[in-house]
Amino acid sequence: MKNIRQVNRRDFLKTGGVFVVGVSLFGCGKEKVPGMTKSLSTDPWSPDVYVSFDAEGTAYIISHRSEMGQGIRTGLPAVLADEMEADWSRVKVEQALGDAKYGNQNTDGSWSVRGFMQRMREAGATVRLMLEQSAAQQWGVDVSECKASLHTVVHQPSGRALDYAELVAGASELPVPGLELLQLKSPDEFRYIGKDLPIVDMHDMTHGGAMYGADTRLPGMKFAAIARPPVVFGKVKTYDTAKALAVAGVEQVVELPAAEAPAMFKAQGGIAVIANNSWAALRGRDLLRIEWDDGSNADYNSDSYKQALLETVRQPGNVLRKQGDVEQSLDSAEQTLEAEYYAPHLAHASMEPPAAVASVSADFCEIWAPSQDPQSLIPMAAAVTGLKPEQIRINVTLLGGAFGRKSKCDFVEEAVVLSKKLGAPVLVQWSREDDIRHDYYHTVSAQHLSASLDADGAVNGWRHRLAYPSIMSTFDAAVKSPVAFEAGMGALNVPYDIENLSIEAGEAESKVRIGWLRSVCNIYQSFAVNSFTDEIAHARGLDPKDNLLELLGPDRSLDFTDVGLEATENYPFETGRLRNVINLAGEKAGWGRALPEGHGLGIAAQYSFLSYVAAVVEVAVDAEGNWTVPRVDLVIDCGQYVNPDRVKSQQEGAVVFGLSLARDSEITAANGRIVQGNFNNYRLLRIGMTPETHVHLVESTAPPAGAGEPGVPPIAPAVANAIFAATGKRFRELPLGRKLDLSGA
Amino acid sequence: MINLTINGEARQFDGDGEMPLLWFLRDQLTLTGTKYGCGKGLCGACTVHLNGASIRSCSVSMDRLDGAVITTIEGLAADGEHPLQIAWATHNVPQCGYCQSGQIMQAASLLVENPSPNDQQIDDAMSGMICRCGTYQRIRAAIKSAAGGEA
User: Fold this and answer.
1) Distance (Å, whole) CA A650 – CA A712
2) Host domain of residue A252
3) How many CB pairs under 8 A join A and B?
């Protein structure tokens, strides 16, 4: 980060000019482009890459991270605005182009605030100091007597005040001060940080003005839909375009080259139908008759693959972490417990299916895309077009949901390839079926857990065997086993204080493209670990929450660097913070309270993305096995937070996301083809199943940690544990389904 | 030639009559506030009003719309702020925002039919809509406050 900061701070004048390029390539016609990027060339003052002012004193703050519902276009700019004592009503937020000068723009891993809060504070404090210096110069007084407050600088001894608009010109002549001269605010001086702030896109989002991936309109733009290989790495054998070309509006059909392994984020190839509107393109695409060579992934069948995964986790695996002798503890135990857990593939299924616009000419390539990782599009576009990076301009639209899918911009490459080929702007529109059948799937997984209890009923052995295809297989087809960072999301870094422990990984070949989905491996590893912990509680005759707290052991900092997990500076894994959220969740939910017949409470807790979350779920199960979730209480300790309303909304959303995968969602393959295709068979939670959700934020001065993902992992296991409490029956496979089989309960 | 009124303006359509309204709105009129979500009436992202009632614009073809009066999110409120749009802001409903045009249009037709719906009636009326971000709890609250005039 240090280098980036230095580059940004010192080179602001040089880099500021980049904005001028290509602002309006298309001067006439019915064009509609996201109005998020303006020319900064007319701005009198841009003291930092993230902020500029116009002559009226309006501050333009750059949001360089992608907005996909987490509220980052409000959150990080508010941090900067706070430090520079801006009047929020005189701030305009602008979306950054994809450009390395902003530092990392890869918006995943729940780290935007963690990664950039300090940088935004420094940018804001720089502006504040320079405005104070400008005022001091105008008044001929010492800067120490000048204090910025809400878009004005006040000379404290005399009470004179100047608006920022009157200070911009003078400030622009001043040298940018070094970091050592900045004084950051103390928390009690915060104006916006830590307070609820409405999102900046509210009006656009509620009036139809918000622009997403498929909303850009350019003169002469073509609309494209693509038939992609139904089996990963399949190829076109023969095709017949007659019916497609007969559709009114269809102009031509273009064959795209097939992708070879590894998948990376490459376009998959196939046959594109080009039309003068989206519907003709989609309809023409559906009318193509294509014979495919399915290739070696055509043997992928979810039923047999599941059995193979379960067989794998019944055998010893590659030991990722070992302490003591778990085999000995299991062999000599007074009592042992064993359980197997299974979870299916999931699709991201953001409401906005992938879509992107590209316009490639002989000397320029411009892209409008809902990308989580806009800088990654520059080398891609350069490779496709042969243009230099400075001839490529990446506009980031709003993302209509992403959840990790839009880090993988195969759909943008398709637009660039087609635009280059056609010599016209192209919008590639994915249908919902395209989205669900050509995802980078959250992986299927199997896990086998064993525990030993000693003569006193204490847990003295824990063995966790897991098998699933690795995300890394998307980048290197030779990888056939979970790697440390994957196992490290809730399995390898299990925080329990148990003497003998072994975490083992088996092999599993990937047969589809595997990617990361909101909270990633935490989903299934939290499901298994928190379910198994609950099973241990019942075997021990203990209250599940008491058992969980006991297993956590004494408060301590955990370090897993010796088993290959990266430590994050200033973010130790503190079991005391996990204990705290568990206790708070119990309190808020009324753990132990009397419940109506058929109701049960379940608890689960997970440390992920450097945050601590516990959830208590109440379920209601009727005699036929139909179940609902009347209430969820979720507690998150994500360290210092910026916009509590957005942290809460992320948790409310995480509860719905977690309930979707707990109850309904499942992707399966038959002969390599994905069976599900739309919301009729890839089911997501709707309003009627949405519980009364109470989110509680832990106030903390710890550094900011993740908020977008950590709410998801505890939900599914807390549901399963609640169902056990309500019915006495344990369910170990996701999704649980809408109707539980209560036979034998 | 199909003649219809969209957000108070007379419009003509002379293309393929099987084209769903959604694509006429988005691709020919550039009214992109109405969103494509599933193409099959399963998610509600494309919801608009036909003669005041909610329809899924992805599933209604143009040849059925001669003489129709259509309202989209862009034309929902003549003065720019429908009570639901105010309530949506009060409750900070949207996350990614993509489904919200459809959600608001569906809720608006509910309130015409039933000015003070209870929770169950809201859930029933909104059951055809999907929000992957999971804003349902706030949608419920916003509809109730708009209905109660307390937005």
Assistant:
1) 10
2) 222-296+354-429
3) 193
Please identify among residues 557-596 of chain A the ones whose CB lies closer than 8 Å to any CB of chain B: none
Question: Residues A550-561: what's their mean pLDDT?
Answer: 97
Residues 6+ apart with CB under 8 A from A512: A232, A297, A300, A345, A441, A669, A674
Using the structure block, give the residue that is written with the tokens 């899924």: B56
Residues 45-104 of A with CB under 8 A from B: 67-71
pLDDT at A32: 79
Rounded Cα–Cα distance for residues A267 and A254 (Å): 14
Beta bridge partners of A291: A238
B31, B60, B72, B95, best to mutate vs chain A, most A CBs in 10 Å: B95
Gap between the Cα atoms of A42 and A55, Å rounded: 9
Instruction: Point out the residue among B85, B97, B127 whose CB comes nearest to the CB of A210.
Output: B97
Q: Are residues A398 and A281 in the same domain?
A: yes
Tens-digit pLDDT profile for residues A72-127: 999 999 999 999 999 999 999 999 999 999 999 999 999 999 999 999 999 999 99
User: If pLDDT is split at 50, 70 and 90, which confidence band does B149 have?
Assistant: low
Higher pLDDT among residues A379 and A38, named by residue:
A379
Are the CB atoms for A374 and A366 separated by under 8 Å?
A: no
Closest approach of B100 to chain A, Cα-based (Å): 6
Find the CB nearest B94 among A202, A249, A690: A202
Q: Which domain holds residue B107?
A: 83-147
Residue A33 has what pLDDT? 74
B16 → closest Cβ in A206, A249, A653: A249
Cα–Cα distance between A340 and A527 in angstroms, integer?
11
A448 sits in the region (left: phi over 0; alpha: psi -120 to 50; else beta) called: beta
The residue from A207, A235, A256 where one domain ends is A207
For residue B73, the chain A residues in CB contact (below 8 A) are 206-208
Domain boundary among B26, B47, B75: B75
Kindly state whether residue A434 falls inside one of the protein's structural domains. no
Residues of chain B neighbouring A199 (CB-CB closer than 8 A): 92, 94
Mean pLDDT of A663-673: 98
d(CA A194, CA A644): 6
Please tell me whether residues A97 and A148 are part of one structural domain: yes
Task: Assess contact for A706 and A111: CB atoms under 8 A.
Answer: yes
> With 90 as the cut, is the pLDDT of residue A1 above it?
no
Query: Out of A69, A278, A692, whose CB is closest to B95?
Result: A69
